[in-house]
Every structure is written in C-alpha cells, then in structure tokens.
Amino acid sequence: MLKSYLDFEQPIADLEQKILDLKDSDLDEGAIQSEVIRLNESIMKTTEKIYSDLSPWQNVQVARHPERPHFKDYIERITEEFDELHGDRHFSDDRAVIGGIGSIGEYKVMFIGHEKGRSTDEKILHNFGMSQPEGYRKACRLMELAERFSMPIVTLVDTPGAYPGIDSEERGQSEAIAHNLRVMSSLKTPIIVNVVGEGGSGGALALGVGDHITMLEHSTYSVASPEACASIVWRDSTKADQAAEAMKLNADSILELGLIDEIIAEPLGGAHRNYDQASSNLSKVILKNLDELTKLPIDVLIEKRYERLMSYGSI
Q1: How many C-beta neighbours within 10 Å does residue 219 have?
Q2: For residues 2 and 280, what is the distance between their CA atoms, to the nearest angstrom?
Q3: Which helix (H) or strand (E) segment is 84 a member of?
Q4: What is the CATH number of the domain that holds 107?
Q5: Predicted structure pTM score
Q6: 29 lies in the same domain as 74
Q7: Could you tell me if 176 and 305 lie in one domain?
Q8: Closest CA relative to residue 8, chosen from 241, 228, 264
Q9: Other C-beta atoms within 10 Å of 289: how many?
C-alpha cells in the first residue's frame, strides 16, 4: 500500500485499505484469501480504468507523485555499478544534478540526471531537483569527459525547472543552460535523453538535446509549469488544470508534435507502483537505443542530430 494517494486515486486507496482491514477480521484463512483475490482483481480493474483516461492535469500530478522514482532509484536498478563524479570545477557541487559513470549491459555510460530527493532533508539537499548554474556546468563537464573517452551519454530529466533565485542569476543561470544546449548539439558521442518525471522549462532543456528522446508514459514536458502558465495567461494560478489542457504537455501530445521519439510504458498505475518494473522498462529501451546509435558513424550521428534540431516547429 502506498503512503500517498492522489485525489483521483482514492477508489484504489479504499480497496487497498479493505485488504489491510481483513487482517483484523474474524474470517477464516480461506475466506480471507478468497476476498483478497477478489479485491486485488477490483484494484486492477479500477486502476486500469482510472489510468486509461487521465486528464492532462492528472498526468501532471502523477509526474509529481511524491513516491515516483527519481534518478537514484533508477540508477541503483539499471546499472551494475555507478561511480559518481562531483563538482563543476568553478564554484561547487550542485546536488540537484547527479552524474557519473555506470555500466548497463555491455556499455560504460555517462549517466546524468536531476535528483529531487525523497525525505525533507534530501529534498533540501537536492534543492527539489532545481539546479543552479554549477549543476549544469557539472553536467557539461561530464558530457565533455564522456566525449573524450567515446562514452555514450544517458540523461534522466526530472525537474520543475532551473532554480530561479537571484544568486543563480548572478552566477549566470541562463548562460549555463544556453552553453549546455550548444555543447550537446555537437558532442561527438551518442546521447539518449529520457524524461522520467517533470520536464520543466530550460532546466529540462539543459539536459534535453540528444539523438533519441523518450518520455515515460506519465511524465510531462513543457515550457513552464501549468501554474506559471495560468498566472501569465489568466493571472490566476488556480487555473493550472486549464493551462495543462492547453499546453499539451503529456507524452502522447509531445510525441504527436514530433518532439520525442518514443514513449516508455509504465507499470499499471504509474511508475510509483513498481520501481523494479519501471526501471526494467527504461533499461530495455536505453539498451535498444545504445545498440542502434553506437553503430552509426559519428559524422552521420551529428548530421541526424542537426536535422532533428532544425525540424522542431515544422509541424
């Protein structure tokens, strides 16, 4: 049973609570087992019905689910070993972005991604996944390191956006993001981008230029948060649900717009319901794309990446 349920998940929570209540009932073991089977079937059907018709705003809520797996959750499941690398060599080690070398299948890969943290202390440590300039400069340093050693790059994007504080702006937030876009567009090594939660604004784009871009089924990708969009358009952040509808930020819409290449299926009820299955699905897609991209000559890879970038906005 989950610790947290979204409003529209309440019917699922009620059924799961009934299973827990059976432990304190006076029914015999056979009757309890039979009722548990019936309730589990109801949970499956209810979950399938709810998640087969999510509104864009509900999709945003799932992408932000407090128990949704983050970078560290995926890394410990899809890599056989992971050596984290620290610091931007200019200012500090931003913990909102984590990067390092890991093994996946037969490949040594530079993994880089946003980390939001789980507990209150972790969220503060990782600044809720909102990187400052040094986080993006660290990411850039690691990507250039990967290029020197002909190592593929895999990014996991999950951020509400870059940190908007005055200190970040003073240290060159926008320049750091723009520099990453330029560097990633010309790196001579395969880049696979995976949006696994929130793909928010320039904070996501700074790790979002690649040769193959995927989104997990219930992740989002947008120029701003629905709340920010509603505040700008209607001057009312409570209209975030309307903004989410207009922004077309869910995976199906982004695929239709030609901004990503592939949608990765999540376990029934979202990635927060089964970390292992979500990680397995992600790992299989990463390996498939590594097999394909590493076979391409570098000049062909760069040309295809250029064509992708030039095609944006043509639909």
Answers
A1: 29
A2: 20
A3: strand 82-85
A4: 3.90.226.10
A5: 0.91
A6: no
A7: yes
A8: 241
A9: 22
Tell me the pLDDT tens digit for each residue of 162-181: 998 999 999 999 999 999 99
Query: How far apart, in Å, do the first and last CA atoms of the chain sit?
Result: 43
Q: Is residue 237 part of a domain?
A: yes
Which two tokens mark 289?
Answer: 């794309």
What burial class does residue 244 get, using C-beta atoms within 10 Å of its C-beta: 0-12 exposed, 13-18 middle, 19+ buried? buried
CA distance readout (Å), 120 to 223, 278, 285: 27, 24, 32
Tokens 């190592």 locate to 151
What angle, 0 to 180 degrees and rounded to 10, lies between the N-to-C axes of helices 275-293 and 71-78? 70
| pLDDT band at 37; cut points 50, 70, 90 | confident
How does 64-78 read in b/e, with b if 16+ C-beta sit within 10 Å? Answer: bbeebbbbbbbbebb
- Kind of pairing, strands 153-159 and 262-264? unpaired
- Give the domain range for residue 256: 60-311
Q: Quick check: is 4 in a domain?
A: no
Give the angle subtended at the CA of 205 by the CAs of 77 and 173, to the nearest 5°: 110
| Number of domain units in the chain | 2
Q: How far is CA 273 from CA 44, 80, 194, 221, 281, in A?
A: 12, 23, 19, 21, 14
